[in-house]
Design a protein that fits this description.
This protein is mainly alpha-helical. The protein is built from 5 helices and no strands.
């Protein structure tokens, strides 16, 4: 499910939505799913709205696979920041400004975007779990469906 910039899957700029990972009014990378989360912003049409709409219709199994894929990408980007020479053989030969940009901006911004995308996928999964638990509770405890007559 990987993929570089512009590719399919969960990498690159897929479903950037209504702005970049660093722009827009509601770009929290919180792990919560409340009003300040990337999930809430995307669901309400804000940043990453396109990403949300692309994945809202996918199966839970696909979303779980996506979360795992994003976790791997986050770990890879953290490793790039910690040891860039391991990932880019000629890193020391790059212009110092380019090195600094990769370590201080590009890779951290990639991680931020990936965390936001992960938050969205987890938010969709949590919403489904909540909806399923409400359905189960409703059918178990709904006395009107079980034939139970209320007496007063």
């Amino acid at each position: 499910m990987g993929g570089g910039k512009g590719g399919s899957g969960f990498g690159g700029t897929v479903g950037g939505g209504n702005g970049s990972a660093t722009g827009g009014a509601n770009t929290a990378s919180s792990t919560k799913f409340g009003s300040g989360s990337a999930y809430a912003a995307a669901k309400s049409g804000g940043t990453h709205a396109k990403f949300y709409s692309q994945y809202a219709e996918k199966s839970s199994k696909e979303l779980e696979k996506g979360v795992k894929s994003i976790n791997k990408q986050i770990a890879e980007h953290k490793s790039k920041i910690k040891n860039p020479e391991k990932h880019i053989p000629n890193f020391k030969n790059l212009d110092k400004r380019h090195q600094k940009d990769l370590i201080e901006k590009r890779w951290p911004n990639d991680i931020k975007r990936q965390k936001e995308q992960k938050n969205i996928l987890e938010g969709i999964l949590n919403e489904r779990k909540l909806a399923n638990s409400r359905i189960l509770k409703g059918t178990k405890n709904d006395k009107s469906q079980s034939g139970y007559k209320y007496s007063r």
